[in-house]
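Predict structure. Chain length: 211.
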Amino acid sequence: MFKDRMAAGQILAKKLDYLRGHPICILAVPRGGIVIAEPIAHQLDSDIQVLVTRKIGHPANSEVAIGAVMPDGSAVWDRQMIERLGVSKQEFDMWVAEEYLEVQRRQVLYTGSTQPPDVTGKTAIVVDDGIATGYTIRAAIQWLKHAKPLKIIIAVPVAPSDVVAELAREVDDVICLLQPEPFWAVGMHYEEFSQTTDEEVAEILYSNKKR
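Prediction complete.
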């Protein structure tokens, strides 16, 4: 169990130290992933870039993930889950459009631009505070593969072992500190897991750019 996001990020930073001096791009998934990324960026002497993706949950139960929206507005989805829930293409497309507006809002809020980061020719390190279903990370991976990075590395404190195994087949490396079984929720593996605010995110990004 981790004390908090900062403590988890410090452990990940040591695992990623071998990349110091290499062309890298630290891509933090907001909001919690930005707290994790802070000690990593300090260790690797790099900026934090924000990578906004959004999970698409079923309106009747937002915890039931049926897909995710990528930074460019395209989407990944669980075809079997969509068919099982009887979701029409029109409904899904509407939810994608709604979530993409939130993707753009957050991208502008955190970076001042709707443009996602440039990762061409760099090792892209995708950082989050944990993975549950993996939809938001898969959306990030899908987008990254079209963005022509040198490599793609996923770095998270905790995730289910089956999701880690699936992601490992899609990227160059997955660094995951804990893979508990059974897996219930990301927050169960932190002593302190309060919601990260937009103000905290802005402060971290401002401090990171001033270094």
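Summary: The mean pLDDT is 93.
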